[in-house]
Structures are given as structure tokens and as C-alpha cells.
Design brief:
122 residues; alpha+beta; Alpha-Beta Plaits; 2 domains; 3-stranded antiparallel beta sheet; rod-shaped; binds copper (II) ion
Length: 122
């Protein structure tokens, strides 16, 4: 009887250790990376448009655009997407993303106030 208890205890402990190891492996694969992208956002509408669209991008965990600095902060899963893909996604919405220029077709569809220089009077 004692030996059965011992076997069970050993089994339980080894399962726990395996579980912890598995958890750590998963955590490693899901590492979150933070990146900042300089965009050409002009106003509150731009902020909403970019945040909404980027939130649907694959691998994205967090999106926030600071209108003062036009810097978009993204948190994403490295195993799901890349910084290049995310800059391209911003460009497809119609905005510059660092050195990636806005997609001309998407840019042309933006309301006039959201196009570059739309707020020059400020
Ligand atoms: Cu705008």
C-alpha cells in the first residue's frame, strides 16, 4: 500500500514538472514585442481608423496612437507577424509607417481632412 502511494506521488510530481516545462515552452513561443511606428495620422478620425484596423491584424495584442507625436504603439506576437508586415498594414490603411509610404489607393480614399496637410491651418 505504501509503495502505491509512493508511485502515485512520484507520478504526480513528474506530471507537475512536465506541466511547468510545457507552460514555459508556450510562453516562449508567444513572446510579445513592442514597436513604435511613426505615422502620418492627422486627427481623431485617423486615430480611430488606424486603431480599429490594426486591432484586427494578425498577432496584434495592443494598439494605441498618440496624436501629438503621431506615433503608433503596437504590441504583437513575434510568431504571428513581423514589424515589416505591420508597417505594410498601416500603409494599406492609407498612412505612412516609418519609411513605408502610404498605399496611394488607400490614401486617396481618405477624407480630405485626414490626408497629409489637411490640418495645415492649425
Ligand atoms: Cu483624420
Amino acid at each position: 500500500m505504501k509503495s502505491i502511494k509512493l508511485v502515485l506521488a512520484v507520478l504526480f510530481i513528474s506530471f507537475s514538472i512536465a506541466g511547468i516545462a510545457q507552460e514555459e515552452k508556450e510562453k516562449k513561443g508567444k513572446e510579445i514585442t513592442v514597436m513604435e511606428v511613426k505615422t502620418s495620422a492627422q486627427c481623431e478620425m485617423c486615430k480611430e481608423r488606424i486603431e480599429k484596423n490594426m486591432a484586427y491584424e494578425k498577432g496584434i495584442k495592443f494598439v494605441e496612437l498618440d496624436l501629438e507625436t503621431k506615433v503608433l504603439t503596437l504590441k504583437y506576437r513575434e510568431d504571428k507577424t513581423t514589424s515589416e508586415q505591420l508597417r505594410k498594414a498601416v500603409s494599406k490603411i492609407g498612412y505612412d509607417a516609418d519609411d513605408v509610404d502610404a498605399d496611394p489607393v488607400a490614401y486617396a480614399k481618405l477624407p480630405a481632412c485626414c490626408q497629409k496637410g489637411g490640418h495645415d491651418h492649425e
